[in-house]
Amino acid sequence: DRKGFVSEQKRLQRALTRYAGGPNSLSSPSTSPTPSPLGLEAVPPMFVGVPFKRLFEHLIKLEKKIAIGIYRQYRVTTDYAGHRRPKKLVLCCPSPHLRLTAFDKVYVLRPSSTDALRQPRAFL
């Protein structure tokens, strides 16, 4: 159901932020929030039913992001207690021919700050 999907998405986003060095990260000793280059975004409606390759090209060329995976709920099953549970799947490095659905999410790497790249390097 849609409500369960939204709550699962929020839980995943919190876990992703914590894992990727967000403000509540266990691996980050600093208390200052650092934006994570890894994100989970909804597939834009114009790419529903379109091969993954087209979304990948769009993200690279126009948004300067790299699509690295797809989060998909692909089937609803009934568990032992009679509750309906969606099956969840993460496709890493999906096939260019994979057709996207309306409920897919895409894992993207966002560009990080280029300030560090502009600094001259010290040679040893």
- For the termini, the CA-CA separation is 58 Å
Counting DSSP H or I runs of 4 or more residues, the number of helices is 3
State the name of the first-level CATH class. Answer: Alpha Beta
Structural class: alpha+beta
Whole-number count of domains = 1
Helix content: 25-40%
The Cα radius of gyration reads 18 Å
Assigned CATH architecture: 2-Layer Sandwich
Order of helices and strands: HEHEEEH
Strand portion, in percent?
25-35%
Strand tally = 4
List segments where confidence is low: pLDDT < 50 over at least 5 consecutive residues: 19-32
Strand order of the largest sheet: 1-4-2-3
Look up the CATH topology. Alpha-Beta Plaits
State mean pLDDT (0 to 100 scale). 78
Classified in CATH, the superfamily is Regulator of K+ conductance, C-terminal domain
Largest sheet: 4 strands, antiparallel
- Broad shape: globular
Characterization of the model:
Helices cover 27% and strands 26% of the residues. By secondary structure, it is of the alpha+beta class. The protein has a single domain (2-111), classed as Regulator of K+ conductance, C-terminal domain (Alpha-Beta Plaits). It has a four-stranded antiparallel β-sheet, with helices on both faces. Strand 2 and strand 3 (84-92) form a beta hairpin. The longest helix has 18 residues, at 2-19. The protein starts with a helix and ends in a 6-residue tail after the last helix.
